[in-house]
Amino acid sequence: MVLGNRRSGLIAYCEQFAIRAYAGAMHLLAMHVPDGFLTLPISGLALVLSLGILALAVSRARSELDDRTAPLAGLTAVFIFAAQMINFPVAAGTSGHLLGGALAAILVGPWAGMLVVTVVLAVQALLFADGGLTAIGINVLNMAIVTAAVGWLVFRLGLRFVRSTKGAAVVAGLAGFLSVPAAALAFVAEYAIGGTAPVSLAAVAAAMGGIHVLIGIGEGVITGLVVAAVLASRPDIVVGVRGTPLADPVPARQAVAA
Amino acid sequence: MKRLLIVGGLVALVLAAVVSYYASSQPDGLNKVAEDYGIAANEQQSAAADSPLAEYSFTGISDQRWGGATAGVVGVAVTAALGFGLFYLIRDRRH
């Protein structure tokens, strides 16, 4: 198969995607920190910190979850697990996948959202050896807690400036986008404290930030599309728009407009 | 809600069982940076590495497509059981 060098971007992208998938062994190592990258003390510290925040989340999530939003939280966990199996190519020899913390926070609230991602990370680490076991606290901190917190704050802030469902979806995309470099930089901070190899932190920070800005674009697109889809069918159960006119059931809003 | 659950569940199953086969096998952002900057040299195998589902395959099914699909479906089922169970338990029952 001959690949032209000057194909239009999208076609070349799809072709690369297909060829790599065909040629390469399926090797779905995800963005999860494996064992050995960080020292045991920093991993333990992250675990204690994560468990403390998760305990708080369990009590706070109660106000976010009722008989209608609890199933949505379960579904969000399932969707994020499945979506994380799909690594998409982002740059030369590099891939990324959805983190989902911002998405979960917007759909079911920040506290329930971090619990959603934690369920996914636990299943991945225990059953699929994806992400280390001693590193589980690190991964929960970066991919569940930081992403949900950043995603929620950006979304709620941005929501003040939009009035339509479409606008809310764009803000959701922005929240998803920013959550990814935030998680990457959290890893760099942890590595600065307890990394196991002598590296140039500035270089690692630049590389991690740069590549995760690209991955964040994918995160933003997926987050925006999924939030748009859920808002179109059941805006009344989306915790992120609670208390705003966007939460009104779709027929009611049309009736008002008519 | 029922419709959302059915549609969402089906989308997740198709992603995990079918689309995952076409995922990029390139290292992800973290692993790439870790390889490039000498972080990956200290990587240790997870204690869960002997799991029959390790790295999204399934011991006993050597065919990549079917092994991966099995791993995906099992993962969706386990995540669903844990997720729906947890959030059902901690939901606010006053409503």
Question: What is the secondary structure topology, with strand pairs?
Answer:
The complex is a heterodimer of chains A (258) and B (95).
Chain A: H1 9-23, H2 40-64, H3 69-84, E1 88-91, E2 94-96, H4 101-108, H5 110-127, H6 136-159, H7 165-194, H8 201-233, H9 250-257
Antiparallel strand pairs in A: 1-2
Chain B: H1 2-17, H2 29-36, H3 64-90
Helix pairs in contact in B: 1-3
Report on this model:
The complex is a heterodimer of chains A (258) and B (95). Chain A is mainly alpha-helical and 258 residues long. Chain A has one domain (30-257): Arp2/3 complex 21 kDa subunit ARPC3 (Orthogonal Bundle). Chain A has 9 helices and 2 strands. Chain A has helices at 9-23, 40-64, 69-84, 101-108, 110-127, 136-159, 165-194, 201-233, 250-257, and strands at residues 88-91, 94-96. In chain A, a hairpin with a 2-residue loop joins β1 and β2 (94-96). The termini of chain A are far apart. Mean pLDDT of chain A is 89; it is low at 1-7 and 17-28. Chain B has 95 residues and is an all-alpha fold. The mean pLDDT of chain B is 93. Chain B has one domain (2-90). In chain B, 54% of the residues lie in helices and 0% in strands. In chain B, α1 packs antiparallel against α3. The chains are: A mainly alpha (258), B mainly alpha (95).
